[in-house]
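TA notes. Do not distribute before section.
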Amino acid sequence: GSSGGRVFEPNSNHYEVLVLSPTLAALSPTKELVAPLGNWKHTMEEWEQLIANHHTTLRASHVSEMRESALALLESLPTTIEEDEKIIQFEKSGLERVTKAGRIHTSKADSVQAIEYRLAFKKALKLVADVAERERFYDDSEEL
């Protein structure tokens, strides 16, 4: 990059998300929320409650920025979730054919893995947007 003045980019913000299941995520998790992951487990119900409580402390304006950012990033990617799912099915069936024929095709296996990773990333972004729309947050619109 150039070493001139920095241009502010709205999508350069660093957002953290803790994804616990395909439908459950904590936006901007606190250290306290992430701590139990290493040593002991909550039930899914306990996680849902902890996360719901955590979300009521997050500013709605911040959450809405996260949502916009996630959707903008999703929009900017060359393929959609649906397209990736189709590509994976196609690649996997091709991989099964060569494997049945007794050949080892590491590059094909790697490409399936890469697409699966890409797909998981996109699903996490979509989950951020879904959670942002679905959950209750601290309404800071009065303060503006």
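Switch to the second chain here.
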Amino acid sequence: ADTGAFLRSYARALRPRREAQALPSAGGPSFQGDLHAFMERVLREPGNSDCVDCGRSLDETAWACANFGVLFCLDCAGLHRALGVQVSFVRSCSMDTWTEGQMLRLLVGGNSRFLRECPTARVPDLAKRYGSPAAAPYAAKLATE
């Protein structure tokens, strides 16, 4: 699937809503728009239907790490929140507002890519998995794609 084309068409379709709902933020304009439809699309991507950390099946209560582009369950969201926003910027897939950049990282990243490409993806300790210097280049790479 061409995720870049999907995001561009999605953003064009929501432009009037996004401009009306724009909030000042360091990450650029943010919007809720039809977040439900967007997240349904993301959850259908291979590997995104299960929590990246514990493997539990995800549903409408899914959460995500905006800087690593991964999805996880409510229980793991609490663990991610404890890491701090400088390590894992946690967003609800159903309740929070997302910036275009965060949405793009979720589309180009995803659980399968994280597990395949991030050198610390299989480290059992979450603080080391997401907060180590070895993990930072993966998050930076997503931000530039």
